[in-house]
Amino acid sequence: MTTSLGGYAGVVLHVDLSMRAVSEYPWTDADRRRFLGGKVMAARILYDLLAPKTDPLGPENTMVIATGPLNGTGAPSTARFDVSALSPLTGTLGTSNSGGSFGVYLKKAGVDALVITGCADAPVWLEVAEDGVHFRDAAALWGLRTSAAQAALRDAVGRKCGTIVAGPAGENLVPYAALVSDERVAGRTGMGAVFGSKNLKGIAAHGERRATPAHPEAFHAHVKKWTASLKAHPIAGDRLPTYGTAGFLGTMNELGILGTRNFQAGSFEGADAISGETLAETRLVSRTGCLSCPIRCGRVVELDGERVKGPELETLVLLGSNLGVSDLGRIIEWNRELDELGLDTMTTGVTLSLAMELTERGAWDAGVRFGKAEGLFELFGDIAYKRGVGATLATGSRAIARRYGALDIAMQSKGLELAAYEPRNAIGHGLGYAVSNRGACHLNGGYGVALEGLALKMNGRSQRGKHALVAMFQDLMEAVSAAGGCLFTTLGVLPAPLVTGANGPLGKVANAVLGSAGGVLRALRVVPPVALGIPMPLVPHIRAAELATGMKLGFGGFWAIGERGYTLERLIGMRFGITAEDDVLPTRLTTEPIDPRDPASVVPIEPMKRRYYAHRGWDAFGCPRPGLLRRLGLANLDGEA
Ligand code: SF4
Q1: Torsion (CA) 445, 446, 450, 453 in degrees, nearest 10
Q2: Using an 8 Å Cβ cutoff, are 328 and 321 in contact?
Q3: Less crowded by CB within 10 Å, the N or C end of the chain?
Q4: Nearest protein CA to atom 2 of ligand 1, as residue
């Protein structure tokens, strides 16, 4: 199949592992116009292919690995790709996004996305090349750690390629096993276990195709301007490059939003020792980043005389303050080990913090204690291989909490563990955790904390406008991701004077305007997208997507793609039993004040959720109403299928 649109390879392949057969998956330009790519495209495909009662670890589960039209075009920070399937951790739609070079090389091979079904009868890896997909024997690779597995794929291919692999945890079906591409990780929702369940060790992609923009000259001029604006931005051009994502850790500690000791507190006495500044001063060897990224938030650090990948913010917090550990060297070591085993550092950290609190309460003794780093390195191996107490820890926090009657202190929603941010001092962020389609995710949740302290300084305890802002940012981030963009570039969308002057008069005005924006945003939602064709220089992703593809999107069209994706994810979630009762937070966060002197310092989730549903056009049960589905062109999906 070809495409008349720029930016795309024009081919989506269906790989049937059971039959060892490859065919073209029908995906038209009309689909591209409505669903763009990445996770939105994946949601549309999985809406058709995931039947109710699918076993996440059975051959009937379908995985979609999808790029967006900006991947490989040279636009800044656009090497991200998406992996989606039914999640073995949550039992609902799982999605995970990764950097690394795999997505770009998949496009170079002439493929926009892979739809993977079935289960191979013996371990395989896939070589995706311009002449097709080749099934290769992975018997000798089974059991390899992720860097060795990627090296083996590169050796076998014998040329420059992008790789993505599962580690031992994925092979052993740990429900929070990750996939690793270069040194980047698709960590969340257990996509590594889906690889393992399909006897799929990894994929290598290579080729020489180029993703050609529809309007090359205008596109490259826009990219130049966009890159310059990112470099001049106080966060995208300064804080992230200088300190990595860990540069936010100190601010989080000051604001009381640093997940600490299983979210029993919002600040940590050892925060300085694990901050981005300390990492930069004591360990940093060099910066690194995904292909075509001017931000380069990745860290290369020194560990016992060796250069290794440095931990990101989420890992530093969830394996650091969240476990009461301030030993930076240990966290660096753990980060590397978990990547090698192919385990999600975030779910691992929150599962361990639950085990530590259960130990404190005398409910279960997994041999782990807050502040005690000894033994954890070995325990990670036990989790990956499901040995001893590791076999229980390998089930994740929700399963453990159910077993020990401790759901109130299991820091998860819909089965996915919280990210690094304590939400009682950033309640918009808390709303995002509760309603996020994939579980308690900061990004799918709309990253409210960016407005509530990390970039702007909206009052983190105020409900004003939060429901509308969370919904809008969820949609826009969905669309940015669908295009192939990195979500950190969305921080670059916030005007620099507002970020640098967040505490000053300008910031106060901005906060007041944002807090009152609910009505306007609600009105804008129902305006037909074409009527919102206003140029939005603040969101350069839109212009880039237009110039790359040749589509006319405007702000309304881009937003509608995000909203369509978010709504589709919700519809898939409903198929797997998600209702309003699942849009919740652990009761610790809604009933235990983070500030003992202020009984109101909890997340008032129910009123916020009601406003959020009404704003989105969902009913009281959290179901999208027919009018919304019609507006988004989703009313007749079953007929289309
Ligand atoms: S900002 Fe960081 S994660 Fe995003 S594309 Fe750049 S290097 Fe990759």
Answers
A1: -50
A2: no
A3: C
A4: 297
Q: Which amino acid is at 432?
A: G
Mean pLDDT, residues 282-294 taken together? 94
What span, in angstroms and rounded, lies between the C-alpha atoms of 42 and 97?
12
Contact 410, 400 (CB under 8 A): yes
Asked whether 546 and 553 are in contact (CB, 8 A), the reply is: yes
Q: Which ligand 1 atom sits closest to the C-alpha of 298?
A: 7
Average of per-residue pLDDT across 96-120: 97
Per DSSP, the residues of 397-459 read HHHHHHHHT-GGG--EETTEEP-SB-GGG-HHHHHHHHH-TTSS-TTTTT-GGGTBTTSSB--
Mind listing the domains of the chain with CATH numbers? 12-205 (3.60.9.10), 244-415 (1.10.569.10), 426-528+556-640 (1.10.599.10)
Candidates 401, 396, 447; CA nearest to 426 is: 447
Residue 507 is predicted with a pLDDT of: 80
Atom of ligand 1 nearest to the CA of 80: 5
Give the model's confidence band at 641: pLDDT under 50 very low, under 70 low, under 90 confident, else very high.
Answer: very low
Is the beta carbon of 488 within 6 A of some atom in ligand 1? yes
> What value, to the nearest 5°, has the Cα angle with vertex 463 and ends 350 and 256?
40
User: Is residue 535 scored above 60 in pLDDT?
Assistant: no
Helices vs. strands in the chain: H and E counts, helices first = 27, 17
Helices (H), 535-604: 540-549, 554-575, 587-591
Model confidence pLDDT, tens digit, residues 331-346: 999 999 999 999 999 9
Residue 370 has pLDDT above 70, yes or no: yes
Pocket lining: 68 vs ligand 1, CB cutoff 6 Å? no
179 vs 165: CA distance, rounded Å: 5
What's the token pair of residue 86? Answer: 């039914």
Distance in angstroms (rounded) separating the CA atoms of residues 321 and 127: 41
Tokens of 428: 């918009």
In the 3-class helix/strand/coil scheme, how is 406-419 assigned residue by residue?
Answer: CHHHCCEECCEECC
Q: How far apart are CA 408 and CA 544, in angstroms?
A: 45
Q: What pLDDT is recorded for position 564?
A: 97
Ligand 1 in contact with 482 (CB < 6 A)? no
Evaluate: CB of 297 within 6 angstroms of ligand 1.
Answer: yes
- Residue 534 pLDDT class (50, 70, 90 cuts): low
Distance CA 20, CA 118 (A): 9
Phi/psi at 183 (nearest 5 deg)?
Answer: -105, 10
pLDDT band for position 619 (cuts 50, 70, 90):
very high
Q: Phi and psi dihedrals of 502, rounded to 5? A: -60, -30
What angle, 0 to 180 degrees and rounded to 10, lies between the N-to-C axes of helices 466-483 and 605-616?
A: 60
308 C-beta closer than 6 A to ligand 1 = no
Pairing mode, strands 21-24 and 93-98: unpaired
CB of 293 closer than 6 angstroms to any ligand 1 atom: yes
Residue nearest to atom 5 of ligand 1 (CA): 77
What Rg value do the Cα atoms of the chain yield, rounded?
Answer: 23
CA separation for the pair 37, 55 (Å, rounded): 26
Summarised one tens digit per residue, pLDDT across range 165-205 is 999 999 999 999 999 999 999 999 999 999 999 999 999 99
